[in-house]
Amino acid sequence: KQEVTQIPAALSVPEGENLVLNCSFTDSAIYNLQWFRQDPGKGLTSLLLIQSSQREQTSGRLNASLDKSSGRSTLYIAASQPGDSATYLCAGVNYGGSQGNLIFGKGTKLSVKP
Amino acid sequence: DGGITQSPKYLFRKEGQNVTLSCEQNLNHDAMYWYRQDPGQGLRLIYYSQIVNDFQKGDIAEGYSVSREKKESFPLTVTSAQKNPTAFYLCASSIAKGPYNEQFFGPGTRLTVL
Fold first, then answer.
1. Quick check: B106 and A43 CB within 8 A?
2. What is the dihedral of CA B1, B45, A4, A68, to 10 degrees?
3. Interface with A, mutate which of B103, B109, B110, B112 (most A CBs under 10 A)
4. Which pLDDT tens digit goes with each residue over A63-73?
5. pLDDT tens, position by position, for chain B (114 residues)?
6. Would you call B98 an interface residue with chain A, using a CB distance cutoff of 8 Å?
């Protein structure tokens, strides 16, 4: 059964730092991967989608990469801002099992201090 | 504005009651999903629907029921058979079911059992 681990579970950084959030899958046969942001008590906002033919995606200060051979993804946030404070979730779809459904990690809670 | 709406934002249920959570989308998406989120946990799939008048159980369907009579609507009923219904419920949609397609989420409904 596919399991998704996000490291670290929580992270606190000063404003302006570059940071990396990690996501790994027990089954490395990942078809595609989505990174989401969740603010407290709110729904999920889709940040980046990496599809099967891609290795990375970029949007503004965010860059996500996927290494299919290892089943690992990273989300890089450049020049962090207090407004980036939120929980970041990764979710993937793997070949074969899970009927094409997204499998979610538990998230990394990010706090950016002014 | 295109998007997904969920109502109510907060819902309180007494023991033994059935309650229905609303989810509406105007994105013209065929696929819709219901997830449950518990504190410190990843999202878990309850039910999904690929097309009108069709739906499938997810990983944790016991104690829940759904209907899909219209493309834009996918209500979730939490029945009295669900033993621990207190959670945050999220509805999502995608243009079609399948690993290619990005999922978009609503703002969520927080259900509390009194």
1. yes
2. -70
3. B103
4. 999 998 888 99
5. 669 999 999 999 888 899 999 999 999 999 999 999 998 888 999 999 999 999 999 999 999 999 999 999 999 999 988 889 999 999 999 998 776 788 999 999 999 998
6. yes
Q: Buried b / exposed e across A51-86, counting CB within 10 Å, b at 16+? A: beeeeebeeeebbbbbebeebbbbbebeebeeebbb
CB contact under 8 A, A46 and B107: no
Mean pLDDT confidence for A11-27: 94
Q: What is the rounded CA–CA span in Å between residue B86 and residue A39?
A: 19
Q: Find, among A40, A35, A38, A11, the residue nearest to A23 by Cα.
A: A35
In the DSSP assignment, the letter for residue B73 is B
Residue % of chain A over a pLDDT of 90: 69
Pairwise CB contact (< 8 Å): A36 & B105:
yes
Q: Report yes or no: A81 at the B interface, CB cutoff 8 Å.
A: no
Phi, psi of A80 (to 5 degrees): -60, 150
Q: Note whether B104 and B62 are within 8 A (CB).
A: no
pLDDT of amino acid A99: 60
